[in-house]
Amino acid sequence: MVPIGVMPQRSYGSPFRRCYSAVMELLHGPRASGHVACAHVPADRPTPSGTACEECGGSSSLRLCASCGHVGCCDSQAGHARVHAVDVDHPVIYQMPAGTGFVWCYTDDRYVG
Question: What is the pTM of this model?
């Protein structure tokens, strides 16, 4: 049996890690799932560039770049937030509205807040 808050060591890939983290957070709070800030999270949160995805105009499931304020859509839509993060090396995003949802680091491939 795996102790609470310890990620199983078998390699199940990213979908398993995200599911495991979500379940652990629901059951035991954010520290149990490993949702702690990483070195990539900027000290200050930027102002969003708008209220829709800058590339496609989508207005649901938006993500805010933690470095520059770019607003992009999530991976379940066109994935413009991820494209921006990879293209300009801004790895951390906030679920919008920022401060009310999760924080994700693409470099670490995990929730960080």
Answer: 0.68
Round to whole Å and give the CA distance between 92 and 107: 8
Cα separation of 8 and 90, whole Å?
Answer: 29
Q: Which two tokens stand for residue 94?
A: 């906030």
Q: What is the pLDDT of residues 23-50, one digit of tens each?
A: 655 555 554 444 557 888 888 899 999 9
> What does the alpha-carbon distance between residue 11 and residue 54 come to, in Å, rounded to a whole number?
35
Residue-wise pLDDT tens digits, 72-105: 999 999 999 999 999 999 999 999 998 889 999 9
